[in-house]
Amino acid sequence: MTSKAVALDVYGYAHKNVHMAETVRIDPAAHTALTEIAKAKHIPLAEALRRAVELLRREVFFEQMNAGYAAMHADSEAWAEEQREAEAWDATSGDGLDPE
């Protein structure tokens, strides 16, 4: 089973459509949980939702990044090239510390 990467350019979309307000229906349990989170954090409900969306966006980003690394690791030539590049970058460290 292969997964297709989804472009998550939410900032580009938001900047183009910042004047638009959207209404999203959520189930009562999710609304209650979001309200409790907002109260506990002393933030507006919209801010709690924005933070929750950002956390989920980051989760998707890292899932896609990990899938990309897994695909590269499965390709021996691509993985060898990645290792060579990493070694080249490691040699540029001029901090004078011994590698751990």
Structure description:
There is one protein chain. This protein is mostly helical. The protein has a domain at 25-90. The protein is built from four helices and no strands. Helix 2 (28-41) packs across helix 3. The longest helix is centred in the middle third of the chain and has 30 residues, at 45-74. The model has no long low-confidence stretch (mean pLDDT 85).
Descriptive keywords:
mainly alpha; single chain; 100 residues
Question: Can you summarize this structure?
Answer:
The chain is mainly alpha-helical. 66% of the residues lie in helices and 0% in strands. The radius of gyration is 21 Å and the shape is elongated.
Can you count the helices? 4
- Characterize the biggest β-sheet: none
| Shape assignment | elongated
SS-derived structural category: mainly alpha
Helix content: 55-70%
What is the rounded Rg?
Answer: 21 Å
Strand segment tally: 0
Q: Approximately what portion of the residues adopt beta-strand conformation? A: under 5%
String of helices and strands: HHHH
Mean pLDDT: 85
Low-confidence segments, ≥5 residues, pLDDT <50?
none
Distance separating the two termini: 38 Å
